[in-house]
Amino acid sequence: MMSKILKNKEFFLPLLLTVVVIVLDQITKALVVAKIPPYGLGFQLFGDFFRIVHVYNTGAAFSLGHDLNPLASFLFLRILPLLIMIVVVVIYFKTKSFSYPQRWFIAGIIGGGFGNLIDRFFNSKGVVDFIDVKFYGIFGMQRWPTFNIADSSIVICGILLIISFIIQERKMKKEVTNEN
């Protein structure tokens, strides 16, 4: 009985991160919209290295697809990401082999995905982005594309999830080698 309770806790507790990411993402976006005029500068730190701005992204990552026609935009920037998020949630619940940290990472990806989907479905101007960082000409970019909390959660948790899978794979290979 206690084992089942602990398993359920390990299964559902990471989903708190999903809620935290969505709430933080929506609160920060609302603050930016309320305090900074569209395409305006809120403030900057360390010269112009880090800036809080107010922009709308009508595309996907790096504004890809911002010029799609309305039907294609609806399908590729709303419906497809929604279906992908549903698949990720189903995989989260159906896959028993994820480690506890992997569940946290997936929960962060889910939170970020739904945070941006809320904007896509309920903000006709696009996804609110506000974190603007100088990139010093790396890859030909003076500034990294502006992003938000949801984007950060997706990228950070995605990287950590990939690293965890690599570590898990190496451990499994080492165990197989040690058994032989």
TrEMBL record:
It is a multi-pass membrane protein. It is an enzyme of class 3 (hydrolase). GO terms for cellular component: plasma membrane. This protein specifically catalyzes the removal of signal peptides from prolipoproteins. This is Lipoprotein signal peptidase. PROSITE patterns: SPASE_II. Coiled coil: none annotated. The chain crosses the membrane at residues 71-92, 104-122, 149-167. InterPro entries: Peptidase_A8. Its EC number is 3.4.23.36. It catalyses: Release of signal peptides from bacterial membrane prolipoproteins. Hydrolyzes -Xaa-Yaa-Zaa-|-(S,diacylglyceryl)Cys-, in which Xaa is hydrophobic (preferably Leu), and Yaa (Ala or Ser) and Zaa (Gly or Ala) have small, neutral side chains. Keywords: Aspartyl protease, Cell inner membrane, Cell membrane, Hydrolase, Membrane, Protease, Transmembrane, Transmembrane helix. Belongs to the peptidase A8 family. One of its GO terms (biological process) is proteolysis. It is found in: Cell membrane. HAMAP family: LspA. Pathway: Protein modification; lipoprotein biosynthesis (signal peptide cleavage). It holds the Pfam family Peptidase_A8. The active site is at residues 129, 151. One of its GO terms (molecular function) is aspartic-type endopeptidase activity.
